[in-house]
Design goal:
The structure is a homodimer of 199-residue chains. The first copy, chain A, is built from 10 helices and no strands. By secondary structure, chain A is mostly helical. Chain A has 2 domains: 53 residues, Arc Repressor Mutant, subunit A, CATH 1.10.10.60; 114 residues, Orthogonal Bundle (Tetracycline Repressor, domain 2), CATH 1.10.357. In chain A, helix 5 crosses helix 10 and helix 6 packs across helix 7. Chains A and B meet through helix 1, helix 6, helix 7, helix 8 and helix 9 of A and helix 1, helix 6, helix 7, helix 8 and helix 9 of B. The structure holds a DNA duplex (30 and 30 nucleotides). Chains A, B: It holds the Pfam family TetR_C_16.
Chain lengths: 199, 199
DNA sequence: TAGGCTTGTCAACAAGCGTTGGCCAACAGG
DNA sequence: CCTGTTGGCCAACGCTTGTTGACAAGCCTA
């Protein structure tokens, strides 16, 4: 998999592959899963270490503390660059679909959301994601630059509400929705929040 | 069992006033506050008891366990009966306003939301509130009886998303919104989810 | 082969948790 | 008065948590 562990060239090859990389990534994967399923407090270092089949003290050695582990495990990239390529009237629907993709691809967003609710650092992480990744996208579709933040916030409220009810609280009617239904219902909403004239 | 410590009339006077009622309600108030601010795990019995200026063991005596305390502290009544009195075209806006009222009147809804994210019993409590109090209201405004649950779920997603971003995660642009702005933006959304033809 | 990092195991620590039971003071009814 | 019930505090229990340090085995270089 890793091919050459690169003992020789260390200069431009990134941070020098270590023998423990397998353990590191096993811990990170287990951590993501536990944080997503249990939230911050109930995702214990001991449980994560057990999932990764490793000693809890190794988690501490590699990541310093539980906070450090969370910071290392949850680095979220929404990959929202291609929004300018869809027709302007379909931006809402495309964004809804994109978020559904991300939400179902892995558990990182669920982890962020769950942790953000009970942990201050988690909430700040989510605020940062919104500021650095959501607002800039809204900036490209939104007419009035003064309203960008507000409109992005409205979209976030709608999309995170969907995620909350569908993936976390699991309200039965929201869980039962098909992908196309979600796009058809929420697409126009997001579209309006982004582009409609201010009411 | 309980005997009759009541001084005078015990027949139709409810559950017989006790000498400890002041302590009981102090505990319940502190519990609501802590659950809303910290979520289930971090809202410790010891902290709640300290807020209520009482010994932790009394909390156990009165409410049996931490689960029992949560069940007793968070009994949520959305008071959603008067929806039939507003003009049918204004139902969405009225509902948004009503929820803002409830959310800002006390901290119970925030408590339910925060606990529902990390605690299974909390999630079931929220599902019950949705089933028993939200869906029936939608039933009265919604044309097609087969779609009532779906449409109620969509409204819940939008409204809980607002609450999540405004009162829990505190995204700055959402916190900054004025009440009229929220009603103007979300009202039409909720209205559409409830009454517009299925897309 | 010797010596220094790295990776891993094990046992323990202090702190905090929910929970329990015993004890004392204040009250109530006879 | 005495007696039983109630309200309250205190000290402790068993357990789990994040975190630490000592120590053995493995690898790499010299």
């Amino acid at each position: 998999m890793t091919g050459t562990p690169s003992r020789s060239t260390d200069s431009a090859n990134g941070p020098a592959a270590r023998r423990s990389d397998a353990s590191r990534s096993a811990i990170l994967a287990a951590a993501r899963e536990r944080f997503a399923a249990d939230g911050y407090e109930r995702a214990t270092i001991r449980a994560i270490a057990k999932d990764a089949r490793i000693d809890p003290s190794m988690v501490m050695r590699y990541f310093g503390s539980k906070d450090g582990l969370f910071a290392a495990a949850v680095t979220l990239d929404l990959r929202m660059t291609d929004v300018s390529q869809v027709p302007p009237t379909e931006v809402g629907r495309a964004l809804v679909g994109h978020f559904l993709d991300i939400w179902e691809a892995n558990e990182e967003l669920t982890a962020v959301l769950r942790v953000a609710v009970t942990n201050k650092a988690g909430a700040e992480r989510l605020q940062g994601i919104f500021r650095d990744q959501v607002v800039p996208v809204a900036q490209r579709v939104c007419p009035d630059p003064e309203q960008v933040a507000t409109r992005a916030g409205l979209c976030a409220a709608q999309l995170m509400g969907l995620a909350l009810t569908r993936y976390v609280v699991r309200l039965p009617p929201v869980v039962a929705l098909a992908r196309e239904e979600i796009e058809a219902w929420l697409g126009p909403t997001v579209q309006r929040y982004l582009t409609a004239p201010s009411p």
